[in-house]
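Friendly challenge for the regulars: who can give me the structure tokens for this chain first? No prize, just bragging rights.
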Amino acid sequence: MANVIKKHSISFELAQKMVDAAVAKAKEIGVSENVAILDDGGNLKAFSRMDGAPIPTIEMAQNKAYTALFGISTQDFFNFIKGDPSLLAGVPTLARMAAWGGGFPIKVDGEVVGAIGVSGAPAVQNDVDCAKAALALVPDAVFGGPKKITRVGGQQLIRRLMGQIQS
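First reply, four minutes later:
Bragging rights claimed.
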């Protein structure tokens, strides 16, 4: 079947275990979080809102995960766009985009199979720590992209972004 592709996606079982791990970390450090796991197509696979987690951060968690589906963490994404005024002004206004820490791709054998977004704590670093606790369940988890996104890599990222928007 030449017109069909084979891809992989996170299972519900792993998604729920990751949510549970992020929530356990949040309890350990004394914060309330919203934790969202999306599949590779951007669909909500598992979610938890802890008691006391702010209502607006429900959407923020999902947006962080959606942004991370581009294959890099949301912090790395921000670090890339912050140097270009047009990207910094435009990209964050797009639906479902989040350019601050707490979103990571979930990769297995180098393939993005989903993403996690965590939001709600008073400090972004808490969101990052909770997401990393969840990612520890994935044997070859990548906690971020390259230290610096090159201009060529950034152009490829923007092309992928534009392709998603036009779809």
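Confidence is low (pLDDT under 50) at residues 145-149. The helical segments are 12-29, 56-68, 74-81, 85-90, 124-135, 151-166. Your move, everyone else.
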